């Protein structure tokens, strides 16, 4: 049974969505944060449509919000495994009818992929969520000879950004942000400057970087000319030593060969998340 009326979710409504996300998380795995009300607030509170089973239990939901970048409405979607093809499809259809141009899910399963394909949605991004348990010890990956590390500061932001641009500009979906846009996206209350590091070679060339938030490795990048020397592994390990959380997460694009590095360093897969767009 779908509630076709879009509505603002109250605290109780958000708690129901959080409980639904927790059930999805228990089955599919994925980002633990995805079941927390603080995470779901922005995605579902403004406008949401829900579906229930005959007993009244919430089994699927879609939230609709405006894209910060002005790209059109974005839908957040989730459904229990057994509800994907009926209730999940119904709330997805409601989101598309309301004008959603992108659909994101924290639980990208084979069934969800098939549903999105039937709705002619095009994959935009798919990421595996990986987890590192610091209690198991951190690899002693050494920095390449001559490399020094500096922690994030406002004054160093342009140099971090220059390495970020050099490392990522050829990747699909690179947003092309300038230093102000990138810094605004990166630095928030959870940002960890002490675990965000710039790697500089003996000749003064900035070779790589890593940025961190609370319990997260946010980005790792190495200039093309410095790849293959172990710098990425050394940066990740250096950042892990500066984190204070027992568990540290990161996202890696599906198909990115860097996943082999992260697995070698001790990261374990938790689940998959993704974004699709209207063709």
From TrEMBL:
- UniProt signal peptide: none
Q: Which organism is it from?
A: Spirilliplanes yamanashiensis
Q: Which GO terms describe its molecular function?
A: acyltransferase activity, transferring groups other than amino-acyl groups
Supply the name of the protein: N-acetyltransferase domain-containing protein
Gene3D superfamilies linked to this entry: 3.40.630.30
- Which classification does the entry list for the species? Bacteria, Bacillati, Actinomycetota, Actinomycetes, Micromonosporales
Specify the N-acetyltransferase domain's residue ranges: 147-279
Q: Which domain of life is it from?
A: Bacteria
**InterPro entries linked to this entry:** Acyl_CoA_acyltransferase, GNAT_dom
